[in-house]
Amino acid sequence: MNNNYQEGRNRLLLILCILLFILFGALLLWSRSSNAADTARLQKLAAQEEQNDQNKEQDASEEARPEKAAKEETEENEDQASTDQQESENENEESAAEETETTSALAKGIVCWGDDLINGEGSATHSYRAVLQNLLNDSGYNLTVIDKTLQGAGTLSMMTMAGVPQEEVQSYITAHQEAAQGQELPVTETGIRDLTPEQTQRNDLEYVPVIFMGYYGGWNHDPAELARQQEAILNTFPQQEQYIIAATFPLDGSVDSAALDSVMSEKWGDHYISMASITSNPASTYEGQADLAAAILQKMKDLGYLA
User: Fold this and answer.
1) Burial zone of 210 (CB within 10 Å; 0-12 exposed, 13-18 middle, 19+ buried)
2) Closest Cα partner for 243 from 219, 208, 217?
3) 247: closest CA among 80, 143, 137, 128?
4) Which among 23, 102, 127, 195 could bridge 199 via Cys, Cβ 3.0 to 4.6 Å?
């Protein structure tokens, strides 16, 4: 009896153990399956999260691209504007430099060399020099006109006053005497006026010269010689690019305007002013002097000496 009970009990325990083993195996399989599913789910979530991050980065990059392009365009425009501004400033500086250079050439003014054809007090108000000064003032030019003229003197005295070497002046005197062949010559052809230290002092070397001489003689009635004498005075200036030459037929009528103008125009070109071409008034009249002053002002503008 006891044996049967004991055998039954053992069988029951064996069955329970088998059932427990089967249950444990089932639980183990279920646990593995669950872990695999969780792992797959987590991997899927991680993959989705990574994809989302990539999409966000792509979206941010696409959004930044127009901003970057706009920024680059703005920077490019700013660089171009800076370049344009610099070029404009350079052009303005160059323009200012050119203007300064032109103004510098005329910084002090104009000097009139040669004949004074107006006698007495009228010279201070009616000579072409005085009229030219007034015209400059009225036109807004702050330029001084210096007087280096001689009344009634010949060109030999003017060259001496300008500092032309004495041997050069004497060569003209000798040539005049030889050409006269013993005949008496006017004093202007051989004589040189006594000049004061103030007259021979050169305070005009930085001025633009206007040379108007020959009315009283001193050039042996030879326009070519007169041109050489004008050039001798011009050569006493440190610069000979800016100048004006004016002439009228001589007082003694030994040379007419046509002959004189032909030589002068060929020698001096656009720098020459012929009294015969600008006025019908005699050069020794107030009207003639005023016409000469106006022609000089216009010539300076035409030559680019004045704006």
Assistant:
1) buried
2) 208
3) 128
4) 195
Number of domains in the chain: 2
Tokens of residue 76, six digits: 């490019």
Residues 156 and 201 in one domain: yes
The first and second tokens of residue 230, run together, are 């004008």
- Say whether pLDDT at 8 is over 90: no
Q: How far is CA 152 from CA 118, 124, 192, 204, 277, in A?
A: 10, 16, 12, 22, 24
Question: What's the token pair of residue 25?
Answer: 């195996």
> Is 307 contained in some domain?
no
Kindly report, residue by residue over 143-161, the tens digit of the pLDDT.
999 999 999 999 999 999 9
- Domain of residue 160, CATH code: 3.40.50.1110
> Based on the domain organization, do 96 and 154 belong to the same domain?
no
Q: 166-180 and 223-234 are packed helices; what angle lies between their axes, rounded to 10 degrees?
A: 170
210 and 72 in one domain? no
* Angle, CA 153 vertex, CA 148 and CA 159 arms, to 5°: 60
Q: Residues 78-95: pLDDT tens digits?
A: 666 566 666 656 565 555
In a domain, 133, yes or no: yes
Domain that holds residue 236: 106-302
DSSP 190: H
pTM: 0.67
Any bridge partners for residue 145, and if so which?
110
Q: Do the domain assignments include residue 153?
A: yes
Across the strands, what pairs with 245? Answer: 211, 272
Q: Is residue 220 part of a domain?
A: yes
